[in-house]
Amino acid sequence: MKAVRFHQHGGADVLRLDDAPEPELGPGEVLVRVRACALNYLDIWERRGLPHVTIPMPHISGSDVAGQVIESAAHDVTPGRRVMLQPGVSCGRCAACLSGKDNQCPQYEVLGYRNHQGGYAELVKVPAQNLVPIPDEIDFVHASAFPLTFLTAWHMLMTRAQLKRGEDVLILAAGSGVGQAAVQIAVLHGARVFATVGSEKKLERARGLGAHEVINHHTQDIADEIKRLTNRRGVDVVIEHVGAATWARSLRSLARGGRLVTCGATTGSNASLDLAALFSRQLTVHGSYVGTKGELLRAARFFFTGELNPVVDCTFPLADASAAQRRLESSGHFGKIVLEM
Ligand SMILES: [Zn+2]
């Protein structure tokens, strides 16, 4: 099969269109013909190389896949089904898995990361429980743009922060995959949403998703703006994934009793925490990593009814994966960048 792989870490030019061996199915696994694969920042991190993380080479990235089942070693799955894929692979047998917290499984892996070859390829294999059938009216490009970011944002807002109707939420980088998903999920659940963007032309796009107020994080001080917009109170929830560059202002934006949830640190993972502010203002900081299979099925119901709509920035053919990754790294995009096959 054709696949885009990297044989060593480095810049986007290490990505190569190769002839790669087809995946061999084990018991309970299915083979999916990839029709679309959305990019995530995880693809960039693993290509550049991460300290203390070994990526087996050559490696196929790609965590967000939609396509068609063409072969099945699972008794209850027949070929032909149109699907999107759960990005999380877990053992299915441990206490975490059996408690519905499969993203806390000791063997939890994200498709396309480390030992699981991903969707930058014509074919990918997954356990049958990772299939999510999609209705005919949902196209493959939008289906691929849904799972990882909407699941991550859903877990952050609904499970970790326990968002309630009427609360104020600050969402960083509304043009990012997680950002555009979080704005929509928070609006859907009756929150007042404050979003940040990095350029003037993204302000209107963020408002179009339902954000009530939009802050330019390059020209305005996020915390000062939040204090001004909330009559000095601050917000109940902050959705963080930017990291060192915004961490202090994100914490300063919280109201008393506020919750900050973080799922990423694109600008660096070393930040400080003022313990006096933490206890005296009764703040909570949550770490969050992807989400559970059950949560994706719940979130997908709103996707299939049209209430949640993944924003697609643009598509590239598989052979242009390096150009697609460069666009993601340049931060010029709004929404998901998708490889279409
Ligand atoms: Zn498990």
Description:
This protein has 341 residues and is α/β, with parallel strands linked by helices. Helices cover 28% and strands 26% of the residues. The protein contains eleven helices and 17 strands. The strands form four sheets. Strands 3, 4, 5, 8, 9, 16 and 17 form a seven-stranded mixed beta sheet that branches. Helix 6 links the parallel strand 11 and strand 12. The protein is globular. It starts with a strand and ends with a strand. The mean pLDDT is 96. The protein binds zinc ion (ZN). Zinc ion binds next to helix 2.
Secondary-structure map:
Layout: E1 2-6, E2 15-19, E3 29-38, H1 41-48, E4 64-72, E5 82-85, E6 88-89, H2 95-98, E7 109-110, E8 123-127, E9 131-133, H3 140-144, H4 147-160, E10 168-171, H5 177-188, E11 192-197, H6 200-208, E12 213-216, H7 222-229, E13 235-240, H8 247-252, E14 254-262, H9 275-280, E15 284-287, H10 293-304, E16 312-317, H11 321-330, E17 336-340
Parallel strand pairs: 10-11, 10-13, 11-12, 13-14, 14-15, 16-17
Antiparallel strand pairs: 1-2, 3-4, 3-8, 3-17, 4-5, 5-9, 6-7
Helix pairs in contact: 4-5, 4-10
The structure holds zinc ion.
Residues 90-91, 93-94, 96-97, 105, 107 line the site of zinc ion.
